Amino acid sequence: MSEPRMPIPAPEDTYKGWLFKWTNYIKGYQRRWFVLSNGLLSYYRTQAEMRHTCRGTINLATANIAVEDSCNFVISNGGTQTYHLKASSEVERQRWITALELAKAKASRMQLESDDSGDDSTPNAAGQSTGSRNSEVQSTLRTLGSKVEDLSTCNDLIAKHGSALQRSLSELEGVQLGGETSEKIRQVTERATLFRITSNAMINACRDFMTLAQTHSKRWQKALQSEREQRVRLEETLEQLAKQHNHLERAFRGATVLPSSQSNPAIDSKGPVPRKGDASDEDEENEFFDACEDVQEFITVPADPKYHRRSGSNVSGISNELGMDDGTTSLDEQSLASNPESPQSQELVPVRKRRTRIPDKPNYSLNLWSIMKNCIGKELSKIPMPVNFNEPLSMLQRLSEDLEYYELLDRAAKCQSSLEQMCYVAAFTVSSYSTTVHRTGKPFNPLLGETFELDRVQESGYRSLCEQVSHHPPAAAHHAISERGWTLRQEIALASKFRGKYLSIMPLGSIHCIFEKSTHHYTWKKVTTTVHNIIVGKLWIDQSGEIDVVNHKTGDRCHLKFAPYSYFSRDVARKVTGVVTDKDGKAHYVLSGTWDEKMEYSRVMQSSRGGENGADGRQKTVYQTLKAKELWKKTPLPEGAENMYYFSTLALTLNEPEEGVAPTDTRKRPDQRLMEQGRWEEANTEKQRLEEKQRTVRREREREANRAASPSEEALIEDSISDSPLKTEEVEIASEPSETTYKMEGPYGAPVKSGHQDNYTPMWFERLVDPMTGEPTHIYKGGYWEAKEQGYWDSCPDIF
C-alpha cells in the first residue's frame, strides 16, 4: 500500500499547508493557508496573501495544543486566540501535530534562554575578541542543546506512536476474519504511517545533530589551540612584567640615595628612563593584544579622552585588511620611545576639551506661507529669510562638515592599491551627506569675505579654511590639508529654486582630493539636495543624482548612484550603489549601502551580462562578488540631538568661540551667535543690519571701480547704481556680452552681463584655472596660518 511522499517537518524547517479553520456558524469551516515558522503559526486566505496581508498569528511558546478526533485539533494561547482546525485526513493532522509540538518545544526553550541571557549579560570593553569567541561557543552549545531537545521530543513521539501501533497489532491478532478485518487493517496501516513519519523526523534531527557536531569540531580544536597559545603568551608577558617591576624597584632605590642636587628630574617626575634592552616591552604587549583571532575589520582604537599621542595604531585593522605591515602604522610611536630626548616622549600634550551641548532650540511659531508665497521661482540667495528657518551654523561651517569622517581619507592615504583607495574616497563622498538626513534648517548665507577656520591638527591631524569668495552667485572656497598625506579643496556655488512644494539645491563646482605619497588626484561633484513639504507636512530631505569619482592619474573611476526616494519603490530608502572600474572599464569592486547609515564593498570575481532588463531595455550586468565588508558606518548622534538642531558631535563644536582666529571668522558673527543663544528677535535685527552693511560696502566698491571706467560708460553705470539695492544685486548670464556692458567672468568662466562692476578680491584664495579639469576655480594661496601665528590681521576687512 503505497501513498505519495509528503514533506516531513524537520525541527528547524518552515512548515506550510492547507487546513480548514472554523470561522462561524454560518460559514462553518473555511480553507486557509497556514505557515509555521520561528515558533509562530500564521494563516492567510490564499498563498498570494503572504506578501502583504496576514489574517492572524499565534505564538506557540505559550499555546496549548489539543486533539479532538481523528482530523480535528485545537490551538489556544489561553487568552483571546483559539483556532479550531481540521485536516483532510488523520495522517495530515498528525503531521501538523508533530510539527507544532516540535515548534512549541523550541519556542519555549528560546524564550527561557532569552530571559536568562537578559539577566546575565554584562558589557565588558576589555577582551572583546575572547568574549566574541566565548559567545560563539555558547551559541553553538545552545544549538546542540536544542538539537538534543528535538531528539528527546521525537523520542517521546516515537514511543507514543509505537505503543499505539503495538496496541493495533494486538487487536488485529485477536480479531477473527470477518467484517472487522478491513477496518483494523486500515487502522494498523495508518498507525504504521504515523510511526514512519515520526521516525523520519527523528532521523532528520539526528542527521542535523551529527552535521553540526562535525562542522564545529575543527573550529573548537582551533579555538582550543589558540587559547593554549594565548596562555603561553600571557605567561611570557607576566614574566616580562615581573622583570620590569624588579628593574623599576632597583632604579627607585638607586634614585632615593642620590643627592638632591644630582638627581635626575626626569627620573623624579616620570620614573626611570628605560634601557635599550627594555624597549621591546611595549611592543610585546601590543603583540599580545593583536594575537587574538577573528579580529573585526575596520576597527579603530580610540585614544584616551583626556590625552592624545599621535600614533597609527588606530588604523592597524585597516592595514591588516590591505596587506600592509603593522610596523608602518606605529613608526612614530616607536621613534618616540627610542628617543628619550624628544619633547613628546617626556610629556603628553592635553587635548582641548570641546563642548558637547548647545542651548536647546526655542519653540517659536511662524507662518511660513506668508513669507514664501511671494518667493516662488526666485533664487534662494535673494529671498529675505528670518533666522526662524535657519540653524546656528553658516554655509562655510556646513562645508567644513564634509570632514566629519576624515578617517576614511587617512585610511585611503595608506592604501597600496589605487582601486582600494578609490573605495575609501567613494565612501568619503557618501559620508558627507550623512549629517543632512534630519538637518532641515537653512544655514546662514556667509557675508562676502567671511571665513571659517577648522583647526584639528592636535586631535585629528588636519586643518581647513573656508572663505566666501563671491556673493552673487554665492560661492565658497574650501582648503583642507592633513599631516597624514592628503589635501582636499573645493569651490562650491549653489543654484537653488523654490517650486512651492519642494526646494531643490544644486551644488556647482568640483571637489579635489590629492594624496601626497601616491600623487593620485581625485575629482567629483555633488548631487542635488531636495527639501520636501515646504508648505504643508513634515520637512524631509532627499539626495538624488549620480557622482563620478575619477582618478586622473590611473584612469580608475567609481560611478555612484543616489536613488531618489519613492513611496512605491521596494528598495531600501536612501540607497546608494556604485561600481569601481579601472581605466579599461573592468569592474573590481561593488559598493552598496545608504547615504545616512553605512557603505559596504564587495570584491568582484566575475561579471556577465544576462540579468533582467533595465528601464532602458538593456540587460543588466550581473556581478559575482565575495562577502561584503564594511567601509564606513555613521556615528550615532549625541544624546538630545533632536533639541539641538540634530547636530553631530563635530557640528556642536563648530561655532564654539576660539581664540586667535581671524576677525572675519564665522564664530564672531553676531546674528548667528544670538540665534544660538535663543535670542531670535535680536538675531533678526542684527541680520538685517549686517545685510544692509554688506550692500553699502558693495555699492561703494562698485563706485570705486567705476571711477576707473571711461566717461562715456560712467554715466550709464551711475544710473544703475542709483537703482534700489535689489537691482544692484541681480546678475544675468548671457551667451555673449554686448559692447556697452562690462565683461566679468562668472564663477566658472561664464561671461556675465551686469550694470555694475565689482572688483572684489578674496583675501586667502586666488582665481586660477585648474590643470586637471580646466575649470576656473579659487585655490588657497597661503598666508592665513602664518598670519595667525603672528596675530597680524590688519589686512582683514571689517564685515561684522
Description:
This protein is an alpha+beta fold and 800 residues long. Helices cover 37% and strands 24% of the residues. The protein has 20 helices and 31 strands. It has a seven-stranded antiparallel sheet with strand order 4-3-2-1-7-6-5, with helices on one face. Strands 15-16-19-20-18-17 form a six-stranded antiparallel beta barrel. Strands 27-29-28 form a three-stranded antiparallel sheet, with no helix packed on it. β1 and β2 form a beta hairpin. α2 packs antiparallel against α3 (180-256) and α17 (680-707) packs antiparallel against α18. Mean pLDDT is 76; it is low at 1-12, 119-127, 257-347 and 720-756.
Task: Describe what is shown at a glance.
With 800 residues, the chain is an alpha+beta fold. It is built from 20 helices and 31 strands. The longest helix is centred in the N-terminal third of the chain and has 77 residues, at 180-256.
